[in-house]
Amino acid sequence: MPIFHHFDENSLNSNQTYTTKSFTSKSEPEPTTTMTINDYAINPSIASGAQAQALNERAVELWAGIHDVLGELMVNRSPDEVLRAAEAVHESSNEIAFLECLLNDLHINGVESEAFAETLFLMGQAPTIPSPLKQFSILPLIPMNIGHLYFSFTNPSLFMLFTLGLVLLLVHFVTKNGGGNSVPNAWQSLVELIYDYVPNLVNEQIGGLSGNVKQKFSPRILVTFTFSFFRNPQGMIPYSFIVTSHFLITLGLSFSIFIGITLMGFQRNGLHFLSFSLPAGVQLPLAPFLVLLELIPHCFRALSSCICLFANMMAGHSSVKILSGFTWTMLCMNDLLYFIGYLGPLFIVLAFTGPELGVAISQAHVSTISIYIYLNDATNLHQSEVVIYN
Amino acid sequence: MLEGAKSIGAGAATIALAGAAIGIGNVFSSLIHSVARNPSLAKQLFGYAILGFALTEAIALFALMMAFLILSVFQ
Which residues cross the membrane (chain B) (predicted)? Predict the structure, then answer.
């Protein structure tokens, strides 16, 4: 039950700032009148009553509102403390804009708002540690809502466009003027590496089909691989947003590919595709159970590659953030001479950023390979391929 | 009390990394054995070893992600 400021009509009508005592003390609160500069600033002529009343009422409403929100946020504190916290943070000021800003901040951001941190600081307690998951928050940059559907242009959209632009620029500059040099420079080498990797993957993983049919999968594999290969390292740019660290984004990719693979399996093999669930040489009584059990791993394939990519990116970046936070503390620990011991934390940050980049690139490789192993399973069912050594 | 429970939960979730460590050691031990048997395939086997390492590390990171989740999400 929130405790409201005790106010009477006299204080509403006057234009003087007002401080309350705790309500539980059950004594008559005496209004300690302090005329601050705010009174004159808001209302030059104190004699005009109506405007002053309105402003004061609004201020008191806002104080009560702030008190309410703080009461909700500070869950295990006594009402006394909540009241003191509320007073400390709004300082019984009459500035409507400041109070509204405070109230909005507390409403929107709750425990993580700056107002709350300031409240805790004013109460003499350490502020709450910012969560390492805060870097993954999605912010709508251009909000667009159609009814209840959320079509906003968000953080991840911006960074996906940015990476797409980078990739297209890279390919454009390498293939300008009819195709570059015979002895490739570094950028051309990179593009050739990616372009060479994809048919390699197709040939290796998807065996047993003619070359023409296999090359039909090349564009799809190229897009999947480039998606992860450029977007994972893009997250290492400072202050940028890691697109693939969101489950929904990688789920969209791998789930849609899984649906495509299943459809293609049915298209290529007809209903014979269902024989995929029954391995060769199984006795008949065991067959129904095996088929039902085999459906579960088949459906899990939709999730496995996406969870792999998402968990690696998210856990990797969270741990880098936590450990880099430690190194920042280490750097600033020495009050007299900042940055005097800077080599140690620098090497620590290097030691975490390097493997993070390596994980980013290798996870691209791993997720692409796993998706296309499933493609191989769908097209070739359980037929073993004849491997010819050259 | 919630902070204490969160810390205990995060610590317990980190124990799962022990299994992942054993798994990664297993992968690279197999790499060393197989390269010792057939050194001409060293490059290809190293490629497979890196693939296996990445997948095993993924499990370790699942456990670490659960630890961070327990530590940071609950108020």
Answer: 12-33, 45-74
Residues facing A150 on adjacent strands: A145
Given an 8 Å threshold on Cβ–Cβ distance, is A366 in contact with B73?
no
ipTM: 0.77
| Secondary structure element (H or E) that encloses residue A149, with its range | strand A149-150
CA distance A182 to A179: 9
- Quote the minimal CA–CA distance from A108 to chain B in Å: 16
Among A263, A224, A207, A175, CA closest to A365: A224
Is the entire prediction scored with pTM above 0.80? no
Mutate to test the interface with A, among B17, B46, B68 (most CBs of A within 10 A): B68
Q: Is residue A142 classed as helix, strand or coil in its secondary structure? A: strand
CA distance B20 to chain A (A): 14
The residue to which tokens 């490059």 are assigned: B43
Flag whether residue B58 sits within 8 Å of chain A, measured between CB atoms: yes
Chain centre to alpha carbon of residue A200: 34
